[in-house]
Specification:
The chain is about 45% helix and about 10% strand. With about 240 residues, it is α/β, with parallel strands linked by helices. Helix 3 (about 120-135) links the parallel strand 2 and strand 3.
Length: about 240
């Protein structure tokens, strides 16, 4: 499947087609009686005709909606060009709760790198999803690495970062990117980007296989984009773990 293409289930269209055929047959029969001269009967026929047309419209709209619901692919608006490239080094990070980790140390694991920062509502919204994914797949060769990239002198305080991470329930490796060296090599590199709170899925060979271009992802009935992004990330994790 190429980017931008979506799986379509033809039977949804077929269902709508047969509904429309039934209603058209009904309308054809009604037209046979349109020469009725009694005013009351004529009004009844007109009302019935309008009802049939409305029913057809609703059936077509429902069929289109059902097909739209099959749009279960998610892709980033930015960063597609990074997929398939080698994951950059993690050199320059200050590790907060573990010994230094290199990208080479992660070979053989599926890695989710999340760039986040204190005071970011989108990062806070996404935090439970990171915890859920880590706890669910960590025993299968999956690891999350949270890289904090401070935007102020205040948020460079490692104790503040630790306290925030503790509040979020992060018990995976955490690092601080005070100089933005790593986020620049992964994401910015002189480019204008919409978000800095981005995520990368890296396969067992150290290749970037998925990019979430910032913002938030989590299970949600009220935020379709966040929900689709979460499903896409989890699906990709499952796929990479099987490789």
């Amino acid at each position: 499947m190429h980017p931008g293409e979506h799986k379509v289930r033809p039977y949804k269209f077929i269902q709508g087609y047969y509904h429309v055929r039934i209603e058209l047959d009904l309308i054809r029969k009604i037209f046979q009686y349109l020469n009725i001269r009694e005013p009351d009967m004529r009004k009844s026929v007109i009302i019935l005709l309008i009802t049939c047309f409305l029913t057809i419209f609703c059936q077509i709209e429902n069929s289109i909606s059902q097909v739209a619901d099959t749009k279960d692919d998610w892709e980033p608006k930015e960063g597609l060009e990074l997929i398939g490239t080698k994951a950059p080094s993690l050199n320059g990070l200050i590790w907060l709760n573990t010994e230094p980790i290199s990208i080479e140390d992660l070979r053989g694991k599926v890695v989710l790198i999340r760039f986040w920062l204190v005071g970011c509502p989108l990062c806070e919204n996404t935090a439970p999803a990171l915890v859920e994914l880590y706890n669910k797949y960590k025993d299968q060769g999956f690891i999350v690495i949270g890289i904090h990239h401070p935007k102020s002198e205040r948020t460079k305080d490692p104790e503040l970062v630790r306290l925030t991470a503790e509040k979020f329930g992060f018990d995976f490796p955490l690092a601080q990117d005070n100089s933005w060296r790593v986020i620049n090599s992964y994401w910015l590199d002189g480019k204008e980007r919409s978000f800095t709170s981005v995520s990368f899925l890296i396969d067992k060979e150290g290749i970037i296989r998925f990019v979430h271009d910032g913002g938030e992802f989590y299970r949600s009935e009220n935020n379709p984009d966040a929900n689709l992004a979460f499903q896409a990330i989890e699906g990709k994790i499952q796929e990479l773990l099987k490789e």
